[in-house]
Model the fold of this input.
Amino acid sequence: MSDTENKNGNVSFYKVYVNICFPLYMILAFFTKMFEINKVIKLSKFITNWNFVNGSFYLSDTSMLSWKNSRQYCLDRGADLIIINSPEEQEFAMTFGERSWIGLTDAQQEGVWRWVDGSPLTTSFWFPDEPNNDKGNEDCVEVIRSKAKHANWNDLPCDDLRKVICEKTL
Ligand SMILES: [Ca+2]
Ligand SMILES: [Ca+2]
Ligand SMILES: [Ca+2]
Done:
């Protein structure tokens, strides 16, 4: 191999690097950074008004939203609607407002209650005679501030407007 060929070989490798590899790397680095910044923005949006209790962040809002929009509100902040795992969390859920959505629904199959993470309902805190699926159109669940702290869930139409409680577990 002559010196010229060797030189040409080095030049073409350099050209490929400068014209293709380096720009691709920069584009990739840019989008990676944007993704990270976006995650930080979402987290900071979430933690500005957070409550931290027993390993979870909770967030509420004064807005009255449908169940679906409440869920989207939480998902937009890297969380989801509250999943009530214990009597303590049940009592805590009542502190957010008179009537708030929780992350429980039987929209997929009537009478089969599932939390938003897909887990089945094991411990429940229904009002007496609830859930009643009134008029065949009650697939979402609210928690109502009440003296009966462990018997105050009601199923109701998912398009009704209630407060939102988001939960983000660690
Ligand atoms: Ca929980
Ligand atoms: Ca139902
Ligand atoms: Ca009901």
